[in-house]
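Researcher: Good morning. I'm working through a list of sequences from a screen, and I'd like to move beyond sequence-only analysis. For each chain I'm collecting a predicted structure so we can compare shapes side by side. This is the next one on the list. No need for commentary yet; just the structure.
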Amino acid sequence: MNEHQVMALAAMCQVAKQVQKIAQYGSSNDYELEKLLTSIVQTSPDSPSDVYQGTENLRDGYKILLDQLSAGEKKDVEIVKYVGGLMQLESALSAKASSLAELGKSIDDIKRRLDHFAITDDTVITALADIYSKVLSPLGHRIQVYGKPDLLKQQLVQHKIRALLLAGIRSAVLWRQMGGKRRHFFFAKRRIIAIAKNHI
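Model: Good morning. Structure tokens for this chain:
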């Protein structure tokens, strides 16, 4: 288990927490949203941590990760389900070359939009959500989102959640690229905890 694998895990936890907040309360912190969505367009980083502009932007994610690995009451089953769902969906994506190619092309289109709009602009969030719907949803591993039904019916809430899930897939891709495997949760738990503690 290495620093970069734990960083990708922390990022997925941070995404999961934001999805949870939007699904339950309908609002999001734009600064938090910007940090996570920006990772989607970091497709050729000089180092893995550049995907998030440094690990300090993931401090909340490291804390959430620690909570999930502890035996205490801070453990959140929803967060665990979201992270597991992201990994499962990314696995289906990585097995399908045509979907990967379509995803890459779509993200390049988003980069061009960013010459004119902020990544948190509603039009960009809608475009990111559209990528998730068109490229990832057809892969068949649907991520169940838990929240208030009246909020989940709102279009902007749906778009923000899908855009965040796309950011989660970006981190799941990084997790796999860095050699992350599901078995690490069982066999490298102490190592994950030790690394995460260094970042909070």
